[in-house]
Amino acid sequence: MLESVRNTLRILKSYSREKPVLRVVELSRDLQIEKSSVSRILSTLAAEGFVVKDKASRGYRLGPSSLRLGTAYPFSHEICSLARPVLRELSEKIGETVQLGILDDMKVLFIESFESKHPLRIISSVGSYHPLHCSSPGKVLLAYQDESMVDEVIRKGLKPWTSKTITDGGKFKEEICKVRQQGYAFSAEEMYEGVLSIGVPVRDHMDQVVAAINVVGPIERMMRSGVDRTIRHLMRAAQDISEDLL
């Protein structure tokens, strides 16, 4: 592996919604890369439009070339193109926001979404991440991984996003086992107050779980519309996508 290329990618992966602007000093400290190397890499990235110098903070933020790559990703991912019409129909049928997520670096990465048309709705954005332990697609994806990954998630800590987040390792293992047995997962106000999310797995031709789809919305409205109905529509949609992956 070329070390310079690896370090360049590590720098780009350091950007997030929480950290939209990064400075040479903090990148050097966090990634354990010499400041002179970080500075050279950022200068090269800036010349190619992947980062832009932020005058106010003397740091760097992502540039237009990064955006171009990010927006192209869903169109280059096979499962996105196959799932898109199914997800659109599901969102219109249920009336809530629908998302498609995959496992990436011990988190859920959303690669496609269709928002509800209700004025009060859950805003979803492609490219955002959710934790595994308190999101319904996260639980689904985790349920079909090796048990060692469940242990790793617990070891890293089950951060309490709300008072209803499962933070006990033993109870969390029981929850994952339940998801595996019933084939779907709930996140009832475990990540956001007043929000219910229901997720199911999507399988490939080898019967391996490669993604998860979920419906998310205000808990009261989703309960009124019928949880069992939502689960049936979700499973039908997941089956349709899985069949297209054969």
CATH superfamily name of the largest domain?
A: GAF domain
The average pLDDT is 92
CATH-defined fold name of the largest domain: Beta-Lactamase
Rg, nearest Å: 20 Å
| Shape, per Cα inertia axes | globular
How many domain regions? 2
- The strand count comes to 9
Which sequence of strands runs across the widest sheet? 6-5-4-9-8-7
Beta percentage is: 15-25%
**Topology order in helix (H) and strand (E) letters:** HEHHEEHHEEEHHHEEEHH
Helical fraction: 40-55%
Question: Termini separation (Å)?
Answer: 34 Å
Uncertain spans = none
The helix-and-strand class reads alpha+beta
CATH C-level category of the largest domain? Alpha Beta
Largest sheet: 6 strands, antiparallel
DSSP summary: helix tally: 10
CATH architecture of the largest domain: 2-Layer Sandwich
Summarize the structure.
The protein has 246 residues and is an alpha+beta fold. It has helices at 3-13, 24-31, 35-47, 64-76, 78-94, 136-143, 147-156, 169-182, 219-225, 227-244; strands spanning 21-22, 51-54, 59-62, 97-104, 107-114, 129-130, 185-188, 195-203, 209-218.
What does this structure look like?
With 246 residues, the chain is of the alpha+beta class. It folds into 2 domains: 3-68, Winged helix-like DNA-binding domain superfamily/Winged helix DNA-binding domain (Arc Repressor Mutant, subunit A, Orthogonal Bundle), CATH 1.10.10; 77-244, Beta-Lactamase. The chain is 48% helix and 21% strand. It is built from 10 helices and 9 strands. The strands form 2 sheets. A 6-stranded antiparallel sheet has the order 6-5-4-9-8-7, sandwiched between helices. A 3-stranded antiparallel sheet has the order 1-3-2. A hairpin with a 5-residue loop joins strand 8 (195-203) and strand 9. It is globular. The model has no long low-confidence stretch (mean pLDDT 92).
